[in-house]
Amino acid sequence: MDSVVTQARSVADERFDSARIAAAVDALAAEHAGREDVFRASVAKLLKAELVEARATAQAVLLKDRHGRRCAEGLCFVQDEIIRILFEAATRHLYHSPIPSGAERMAVVATGGYGRGLMAPESDIDLLFILPYKQTAWGEQVAEAILYCLWDMGLKVGHATRSVDESIRQARGDMTIRTAILETRFLTGDKPLYDELVTRFDKEVVQGNATEFVTAKLAEREERHRRAGQSRYLVEPNVKDGKGGLRDLHTLFWIAKYVYRVRDTEELLERGVFDAQEYRTFRRCADFLWSVRCNLHFLTGRAEERLSFDMQREIAVRLGYTSHPGMQDVERFMKHYFLIAKEVGDLTAILCAKLEDEQAKPIPVLSRMVARFRPSTVRRRVPESDDFIIDNNRINLAAPDVFKHDPVNMIRIFRLAQKNNLAFHPDAMRTVTRSLKLVNTELRGDAEANRLFMEILTSNDAEIVLRRMNETGVLGHFIRAFGKIVSMMQFNMYHHYTVDEHLIRCIGFLQEIERGGSDEFIVASDLMRKIRPEHRAVLYIATLLHDIAKGRLEDHSIAGAKVARRLCPRLGFSAADTELVAWLIEEHLTMSTVAQSRDLTDRKTIENFAAVVQSVEQMKLLTILTTADIRGVGPGVWNGWKAQLLRTLYYETEPVLTGGFSEVDRARRLAIAQGEFRSAFTEWPEQELNAYIARHYPAYWLKVELARKIRHARFMRSSEQAGHKLAINVGFDEGRGVTELTILAMDHPWLLSIIAGACASAGANIVDAQIYTTTDGRALDTIAITREYDRDEDEGRRATRIGEMIEDVLEGKLRLPEVVARRAASRGKARPFVVEPEVTVNNQWSDRYTVIEVSGLDRPGLLYELTTAISKLNLNIASAHVATFGERARDVFYVTDLLGAQISAPTRQAAIRSALLHLLASEKVAA
Length: 927
Description:
By secondary structure, this protein is α+β, with helices and mostly antiparallel strands. It has 41 helices and 16 strands.
């Protein structure tokens, strides 16, 4: 346990005068003698006022000195003093026993987090009332007096009353109680009683049970990480329970305290668990995390542990971060946060290594898949190198100076582990981290080191090995541009991980694409088998580097291409392949943008895209990179619809690159798509099936995935048989966290605007839309909206309300502008993101239509506002392509004037641009 509370006393004494408050309590006792209830209420009122003042002072000091640990110590001291004052009041004024019996003794003890002597502003208080024997009337009264007063003060208190015997018995059987007692700290009352508990706990519970405790705590940690999100690089981390958070530091100390019997973190130095530098890291990590946590509690006024986007900027400002060129203040703060989380992970590995040296563990391997086939061996030489040994199936150093003797070993150790499917010994990784100065200009230019690195990148388990290289710092030192994006977070809702973690995950998905067999990546896996063999390495390095220039002033695609041109020759790439890598990085967003926001049936779209990709081989590579990139953004971002759009774009463009636009080829693909539908959907007679297929335009058959086509067919038939003028089918996509509304209605010039308005009125935010019209004048639109409720039944009811509203508007029973305006008036606080609005109006993307591309901060009702504004500008919307990327909305509209012509007058284009920019910049909903 940290002996911190006494150190905090001098600071806290300035803000909490215990003697004065105790005297005031004595005065209240005299004033209200014989009226216990009034006395208790008066004491609670007095102490609550003092606590409020102490907390306000603590927050003011925290904002000034930004020292979170000191704040937590001071708040803990204040709480200690309050409990001591209450104990005195209970035993002297309420239940005074002039000659106490042997049973009328009590020790009040802090346990759990409170027992550590550190307390966040809104943390719970955990108390243990220790009695010598069983519960007595006196003990029950004293404990109740203290607890009721604390509850009256509005505090959250966890408590238990037990004898020493009972505490020992329960600690043996319950790991939670055992951990709580491990962290006890004496507050007030009978000190010998507390000492007896500690002595017996050490002797009767702890001794001989270290392995059991360590195993349980590490298992708890894994489960906690699973609940909070496995990666320590999730962009909205949990400061307390997330990977690399405070609870991981607590687990470290629990284990150390249990195994090594230390009472203070400084003793970890004496026991040789940490060296001086690592101990300083431990303290620094704790100080930083406590600063974040205390500010988070003060800011929200509750025990909030999740560092959400709307909190991040506020905390960054409180902690004194400022914006630098290319990086916002909040991004610099979060980069620091993730670096701290990484260091917490390193400390965990060091302690686990120490424990593993002292007791045998199950044999680890790099890939769990082959674990069962690996025979157990203790120590032997690694094949191909005398510098490394296999130590219990982990790669370790044969001698302490292997890196100094040959710096290439700094890369070689990772390749040998990968090649021989070995895990990494923590001692070896510790030595790697301490030897980073050896990764210098000379090593970066070494041909063997670069060859080994490319082997790592393009071999099995590359994701695992690259992550270890990143965690030790080798990857960022060997490729210095990568070092700049380590732990960098992008302040947006689209990316789920830090930049470095995203790039490493993309390599993992690229390997999954190459292995094949996954329904997620059918097209990309097929193309991977067809690319030229020499381009395999090109694809891997382009995937690793595609976001390497994030956080710079220059566009990251252009800057990333420059990085590739400098780096690739060093890695052994020819001039032609280097240029190909640079091109892939420069264009890595192009295919995704075109697929999701352009009309893929428009010949001009395809010709423009073909002009960018230039050859089928380059398009293959770009398709595979785009697939891995979208999949690596985070769960739910890649889906069947996006896969189908990429597939359509690829196969629409291929004929153009192989000898001109071919309608015959398109007709063949249309026939294949319709044939697939016929084979999979055998529920209807042939005549009905033929009539149904004829109802859809070619674009529908080429762009919609098969499973959705089948759902549409069933939905349209059942709706029409029931005689519905308007029908809505509700579906739930758990992976994306959205509710899908499929709407069948008679086509109407304002239908999209009406649907968008109805969604806005119900508070539903549209994240994407697929809009199709049948040959007989029906509209078949699929709208994805963000979920509001956890239960599907509740979401279904909300969807029904939206459908009823659409019907009422179409029948003239409801005026949408008024309903949407009312909803807008009740809109919550603004989101913490800033997205510069952009509007592009041009005739270069289509020969028939003017294309309006709108990009800005997404908000409920935005699509309704845009479609309404476009209609008021006397424009017809021929097709709309709706997408959101986190908080950014990107909507593209193919429009004509009322006579069906393109908008060619520059003045009218400028008026359209001005009107839509004004709308994006405004928070008011168009009426």
